[in-house]
Each structure stands twice: as C-alpha cells, then as structure tokens.
Design a protein that fits this description.
The protein contains four helices and six strands; from the N terminus they run H-H-E-E-E-E-H-E-H-E. It is α+β, with helices and mostly antiparallel strands and 106 residues long. About 9% of the residues have low confidence.
C-alpha cells in the first residue's frame, strides 16, 4: 500500500487526456472539394484554416510546434439539402464533396 501512494498521482495523470493538458488547441478545416478532384485527398499541400486566424499545411503547422492529434475526413452535404425531390443537379460532382479536419495542440 505504501508503494501505491507515490504512484497514484502518476496513474491519475495518465488517465487525463493530453488535450486537456494542452496550452492551446484548435480545430482546422480544409476546403471542401468534389471527391473526383485530385486535390481532395489529404497530402502535404492540403491547406487548413484553424481558429484564431491560424492557417497552414500539416508540415508548416508541425514546424510551428503544433501537434496533430486527430485527422478526420468529412463529407460536405450542404448541396444535397438545396436540391428539391426529383430535381437533377446541374453538376452531380458538387453533391459529393469532402474536406479534412485536424485537431491540433501545443
């Protein structure tokens, strides 16, 4: 039991998410592009816009000291909500857009 007392704070610290220990964190988003677009897939040149006017690519954000904690691919369905039932969209590719979300922290 005596051995557990000094170790207990470390165990509790390990249970706390690293995001809650971060000094600063932001959600970043790329542009929504049709899935057929060659720039729709995540790459070193994908540009992100984050909170507080922060922008950059994965590489430039990392070089600036940001840690990328999550990468999420999202579907943009805003064009679908604008279409009326039975209506054929002028450009079907616009219905299937994708964008990337990063969660970064320092």
């Amino acid at each position: 039991m005596k051995l557990l007392k000094p170790v207990m704070p470390l165990l509790l610290l390990g249970l706390i998410s690293t995001a809650s220990l971060a000094n600063e964190a932001h959600v970043c988003r790329s542009a929504a592009l049709p899935q057929s677009n060659k720039d729709a897939e995540l790459s070193d040149t994908t540009s992100f816009t984050c909170g507080r006017g922060l922008t950059g690519t994965v590489s430039s954000l990392s070089q600036a000291g940001w840690q990328i904690t999550h990468v999420i691919e999202q579907a943009d369905t805003t064009a679908l909500s604008a279409i009326k039932p039975g209506q054929i969209p002028p450009n079907p590719e616009e219905l299937a857009k994708t964008y990337w979300v990063l969660v970064i922290q320092k």
